[in-house]
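PROTEIN–LIGAND DATA SHEET

This sheet pairs a single protein chain with one bound small molecule, S-adenosylmethionine, given as SMILES. Inputs appear in the order they were entered. The predicted three-dimensional arrangement of chain and ligand is reported afterwards as a token string under its own label.
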Amino acid sequence: MVNAAAETRTFFDGMAPRYDADLRLLGWDPIRLLAEWPFIVPPLKDVLDAGCGTGALLETLAGAGRELTGLDISPVMLDKARNRRPIKGIELHCANAGESWPIADESMDVIVALAMFEFVEHLDVALDEMHRVLRIGGRALFTVEDRVDWGAVEREAYEHRYGEVSLWRRTREEVEASMPPGLEIVRCERVRGYEVLELGFVTAYWVVEAYKP
Ligand SMILES: C[S@@+](CC[C@H](N)C(=O)[O-])C[C@H]1O[C@@H](n2cnc3c(N)ncnc32)[C@H](O)[C@@H]1O
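PREDICTION REPORTED AS:
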């Protein structure tokens, strides 16, 4: 049996050297998404980027008294993050977001998780962890890749794969059904995802803002 998490780790370890350049090519821009979304990451707050990759988003959040933490399954992506001077010395955890997160209960004010949950088979487990780690009054912003677009036959080979890795796309209803009690959706919108270059096809993400009252 294929171990999807190990496969994902190997894939992103290999992709790490060119990830930032590829991102531009695919047209996915998490920094712009965060800047344009009416989602405030206040100063003097504990912020976690789950699936932080090379740390580009963390770098934009540095300063303003924020305590930043990153989590990612790929040690090589994390090495790239470690080498960014503005976020030198921040806590970076190498862990699978589809299992328990090595982060204390109610220790984060804000969690972002962009372009990562599609690589997690059990979204409900990851969202339970998000809920556990958020403080009361905390907010999260995460994306879930939309499944609706992937019906056409010629796209079949791509429906459950991204390059060499498995992925899980989900409908809005599936996202809603995976939310733990106590984590409320404030806003959910469909936005442009990334381009599947071989097909000239652009995917879509559900962007979800959630709140722990
Ligand atoms: C497409 S990249 C997105 C990186 C960044 N958040 C962005 O929006 O550009 C996906 C990232 O999620 C990480 N990742 C994939 N599956 C993961 C998992 N199960 N647990 C933690 N990180 C994971 C990958 O290693 C990679 O760094």
